[in-house]
Amino acid sequence: MVCTDCPLKNMNTLKSFRAFALLTIFATIGFASYAVHRDEQRKVHALGLDHVTTEIARRHIAIVEEMPTIPVRDDMFPVHIMFREKGSDAWMLWGTGTYLKNYEPSIITAYHLFGGHPGEFGYRTISRRIFTGEEPIFPIVAVFDPLVNDSILCSADEKGNKFPRISVPERVLWRFKEHGSTITFHQAFGTVRLLTRPQKPLKLLFWTEVETGGARYCFFEGGTTRGESGTGGIVDTAGEKSLLVALRNVEETGIKFRNTQPIPGPYGVGMILNYDK
């Protein structure tokens, strides 16, 4: 006896198998995507970056994941500056700074992180332990203004758990956009290695001095992202007790020196501080 509908049955079976296979593939992809998204959200929350865009948060996740486990120098290391208005609030990643082991006040960062933002501040060592909740946040108990434009020094309590409320007045800071046409630029040589990503030296482009506190600003290729204000950097053409404090970005199309081609932007800008005083 010949089965006239067997080919049709086989075809239907094959279609069912293909449909099941496709559903399985889509389900696997969907679960994998969900797992990746969930892991990313866990890291965003651990960093204290729920208040920023996904793009900025991913940049900080990459910085932590790619940072070398051995610091560039044994006398300093990068830290996150954390902020909350009051003790019942969640910590937010507010900026970045440098912890100096042999200097007091022990933390150097950007003034504008504190100016006009009364509340509680802390610091946390930047490491992969942040993602597992093992990296503690220590209180910043006092700040000191060195009167060098956008820089500030902080004292911390590594053994305490009380976070005093700190209030620093806002200050008019020097802005390239407002004063760039009235200053003299000098071509710079060498590189800066930001302590958060020292494996990627950034070329120094030019420098200038302004009257506000006698600050010397250095401009370097590329730039920083939100949350990196205050990042420390080692300049290979500066002294051992000098530190570049990254402050902000300058979005300019290009600055031209005499007899040179314009140097394209954007630029990162920071000030060089000498902390051996």
Give your account of this protein's structure.
α1 (6-47) crosses α2 (54-66). It contains three helices and 14 strands. The chain starts with 5 loop residues before the first helix and ends with a strand. The mean pLDDT is 84. It has helices at residues 6-47, 54-66, 176-179, and strands at residues 76-84, 92-100, 107-109, 119-125, 138-144, 152-156, 165-166, 186-187, 191-194, 202-209, 216-221, 232-235, 242-250, 267-274. The protein is 21% helix and 30% strand. With 277 residues, it is of the alpha+beta class. It is globular and about 75 Å long. A hairpin with a 7-residue loop joins β1 (76-84) and β2. The protein has a six-stranded antiparallel β-barrel. A six-stranded antiparallel barrel has the order 9-10-11-14-13-12.
